[in-house]
Design brief:
- By secondary structure, the protein is of the alpha+beta class.
- It folds into 4 domains: 92 residues, Reverse transcriptase/Diguanylate cyclase domain (Alpha-Beta Plaits, 2-Layer Sandwich); 64 residues, MutS, DNA mismatch repair protein, domain I, CATH 3.40.1170.60; 58 residues, DNA polymerase, domain 1; 108 residues, Dna Ligase, domain 1.
- 39% of the residues lie in helices and 22% in strands.
- The chain has 14 helices and 12 strands.
- The strands form 3 sheets. A 5-stranded mixed beta sheet has the order 5-6-1-7-8. It has a 4-stranded antiparallel beta sheet with strand order 9-12-10-11. A 3-stranded mixed beta sheet has the order 3-2-4.
- The longest helix is centred in the C-terminal third of the chain and has 22 residues.
Length: 358
């Protein structure tokens, strides 16, 4: 006889994490609309407090737009070292309950608590205790979603934000998904949601009603995934410490870069930041990507995959500069430059595999 164990998955998501840390550390900011980021030039909002969100301010929004929506918005610079420290505190709490912790970012993670280390009888009780401990340790609130798979748990964590939790019990996933707009599904971005809407698929119920072959015909392999989640199905496991696939750095400049010298200088600065990460993690990659956004917002990328992982800072700069040089002469000014290192491997392997960049 085969017994099937129903998983107990929690998705924990900190509430307005960066902005809440700033409000915690500066009492003058509490209760006020706060944005982490830069208000000058082409700055963007990295995070917004809930007070700012009531005005429609959102992360990734240009600062000028945010200020139009909320003239009293207070901008504060980011402090990523502080956020990383708090994130480590939170993850230590997670590991008191389960070794199966899959971080998605500094402020959210999946936990499989099917067999939790505390022996708590339910995932609901486990989530409540974790949230209480986070509050006690950091003075910050977290929201949680509890369900029998990752897709549903992530949807659930948005239901009672901030400082709340929500459960989708076994057998109720399909009914819960049916009433939601497809744009709320994790993994379906705005453009895909628009395409689905044009096909008459607005809700989860609409998506469930479509034949799998129809969805695959319009969306390729993703169509099969959309069919599964429309039925509340997701068999992905919580995977602790997923290997990072890439590391990148990019900057939007206050003034367009108009000469090759300016672009190459920017590429070198981005490569410096990427290599700082390589040295900290002892991990490198064999694919170098240079990204540029022109003044008309068109994005172009150039990439090169080497025979082995990049083994030195100088090699990274050399490859990145050569990729950037393919953009010259510039057809117009460039407002953003980025450098990414992908196809990662431990740096010890990179030392062995690296080949000349010629």
């Amino acid at each position: 006889m085969v017994f099937t164990v129903t998983r107990k998955i929690i998705h924990v998501d900190m509430d307005a994490f960066f902005a809440s840390v700033e409000q915690r550390d500066d009492p003058a900011l509490r209760g006020r609309p706060v944005a982490v980021g830069s208000a000058t030039g082409r700055g963007v909002v990295a995070a917004a407090s809930y007070e700012a969100r009531t005005f429609g301010v959102r992360s990734a929004m240009p600062s000028v737009v945010a200020l139009r929506r909320c003239p009293d918005l207070i901008f504060v610079p980011h402090r990523f070292e502080v956020y990383r420290h708090v994130s480590r505190q939170i993850r230590e709490i997670f590991h008191d309950y389960t070794p199966l912790v899959e971080p998605l970012s500094l402020d959210e993670a999946y936990l499989d608590v099917t067999a939790n280390l505390k022996g708590l009888p339910s995932a609901t009780a486990t989530a409540s205790e974790i949230r209480a401990r986070i509050l006690e340790a950091t003075q910050l609130t977290a929201s949680a979603g509890i369900s029998y798979n990752k897709f549903l748990a992530k949807l659930a964590s948005d239901q009672n934000k901030p400082n709340g939790q929500f459960v989708i019990p076994p057998g109720q996933g399909a009914d819960f998904v049916a009433g939601l707009a497809v744009g709320r599904f994790h993994g379906i971005g705005p453009k895909t949601a628009e395409k689905l809407n044009r096909l008459g698929i607005v809700t989860g119920a609409d998506l469930r009603a479509r034949d799998p072959a129809f969805l695959v015909g319009h969306f390729g392999k993703s169509g099969a995934w959309y069919h599964k989640i429309a039925h509340g199905e997701d068999d992905r496991e919580v995977t602790p410490d997923r290997p990072r696939k890439s590391s990148g750095s990019e900057t939007t400049f206050e003034h367009d870069l108009k000469t090759p010298e300016e672009v190459l200088a920017a590429v070198r600065r981005m490569a410096d930041q990427v290599w700082d990460w390589v040295e900290r993690t002892r991990t490198s990659g064999k694919t170098v990507v240079v990204k540029a956004r022109y003044a008309d917002f068109q994005i172009v990328t150039r990439s090169k995959t080497l025979g082995g992982a990049v083994a030195s800072h100088a090699d990274l700069i050399t490859v990145a500069e050569r990729l950037a040089a393919t953009l010259f002469p510039l057809r117009m000014g460039i407002r953003l430059v980025g450098v990414t290192l992908a196809s990662m491997a431990p740096l010890d392997e990179a030392d062995q595999l690296a080949l000349p960049v010629e």
